[in-house]
Amino acid sequence: MSFFLALTDYIASHPHLAYAAIFLLALSESVPVIGAIVPGTAIIVGLAALVPSGVLMLWPMLIAAFLGAIVGDGLSFWLGHRYHREILLRWPLNRYPELIARSEAFFERHGGKSVFMARFTPGVRAFIPLLAGMLRMPARRFYYANILSAFVWAPSHILPGVFVGAYFSFAGAAAGRLAVLLVALIIILWVIVWVVRHMVRRGIPILLVYLERLRRWADARDTWTSRQIRSLLDPAQKETKILAALALLLVTAAWTFFGILEDVVSGDPLVRTDAAVYQILQDLRTPLGDSLMVSFTELGDTAVVIAIAVLVFLWLAWKRAWRTAAYWVAAIGGASAINTGIKVALHRARPTENLYSGWSDFSFPSGHSTENAVLYGFLAFLIARRVRPAWGLPVALAAAVLVALIAFSRLYLGAHWFSDVAGGLAFATAWLALLCIAYLHHQPTEKGAGGLLIVACAGLVVAGGANVYRRHAADMERYAVQYEAPSILAADWWARDWQQSPVQRIDLAGEAEEPLTFQWAGGLERLEADLAQKGWRSPAPWTLAGALVWFTPHPGPIDLPTSPYIERGRLPSLTLVHPRAESDGTSSRFVLRMWATDIDLRNGHLTELWIGSVVDERLGNRFPLFTLAQAQPDANGPRDLLAASLGAGRLVTRADHRSTPVWDGQVLLAREGSIPANPGMGALPEGSASR
User: Is the Cβ–Cβ distance between 336 and 369 less than 8 Å?
Assistant: First the structure.
């Protein structure tokens, strides 16, 4: 079962948790500081996309958002009314003087209407109710505006998500998974924006201080280097802050790229994360999603990039903007050449074989991500300098969205690993920052302003549309997912091919975790039924009541929910718990988790093959408020208990693992046909197993 399907099923089984989350998120939007940190609006819109698939209901969601918005504004109003202006002098509000000043100006300008208007105004919406309480706004007037604005705010945030979910419903059974992906993407984008904004806010002032020191050092010398530095850092130039931001971006992007490159070369955990991300996205694929992502990939093909690059160059040449044209050629040509050079040097294989031939067959870094990020990034930079400031941000956002969709399509279609795309985007960002710094330093004459945007859009529509029309059918076949799972003979698996399965579980961060000490051939229903006779039970579900058990002093091992460990992008398909009491009075439990493999066994008919781990979890109260479940390193005892519970099976030793006190390298093999319908064997003592 895939990650997204499991998450969607969990939300469907516990909708009350989603409604409670919507209430708290709507409340947090109106609380000062918290409203600026928690992405409440983004998550609410994402959860609303689950409504058309039947996972959540519309009316409870609207009521939760409505009530949360009212309570949040009311709480903020009460704080202002209770503590007056002195609350602004306390942490953390005293760290936002500019935002408070903007909110006060907003309140003075709009008066009582500001309570209604602020609900839909980012930045000031969390401070206006506070100011209304401080300025002694009549409570009746405040709550009239509060309730009316919440009545409008709730549907305005939830209905767009419902419409998006309705669009996803065309994907049929994948609607829920696509909606959950939307939630994840919204949260990730919000976090990226928040991190970048705070890095720029804190990083640029520090960078300006060091640049000023560098300028003073250059003023005290008369060399070619010092003259170039003085020219670059002249305070009279309006581009000084832009150059500082570009320098910070260059250092950050270059550091990121070389970090990814090091991980790819050395095979660090990032490379193992690639497999998990690949598996998650391949489980998500649907015919509609394939068609959309293939179209975005085709918009980023080399033929389209060359066509747009040539059109822009011809336009600049016609306008006689030769220096800008030279930078344009250096941007596209340099990025392509360096990208190809790295590919040839590393010879990294793609996740899906035989997609391309020649140098394009290599994977790192992603050519689509690199070339399109440089193409549209530098084009947006040139256009933004030639249009009114109000148009600069929309142009940059449009370019960023197009590049992001093209890059994501490479991941979705299995054409690249995650590190390929991340590395390509990091390299493109560093290359762009370097070119923009050089461009601003040389100050070429600004020509060809009005037509650049028109020429680029026309090139994308004509060349991209033609490429999609010409290649879409063939590319749908090229990028089609291979649903046929590999199969091996059951006898060969039992004898030797069991060693093809992974040695250890790999989590989503790419870290190697506990060993996979159990392999099962057959249905999970039969395994669960057999183990139930030996005391193995399903763990408590993740409900509100189940989560609260973690805060009780001495919970029972069966009463605590288990952590959903991920194995190469997959959630466990079966989780069972076997409780036991320790001699010192503490409690512990053995936790068995089973994950699906992509291998079928042939023995007259196809049989599913599953891999699993058994972990000894000690339950303790190291902290006064909640219980912790700490996994023990020993893998032998839990595996032997499982072998005793099954009463059948075969212990085999991996040839690729050296025996250690933590794990002796042995794996338990069991199959459905080797276990009686009603096992009569007594359980073997703990720590022993049949061999």
Answer: no
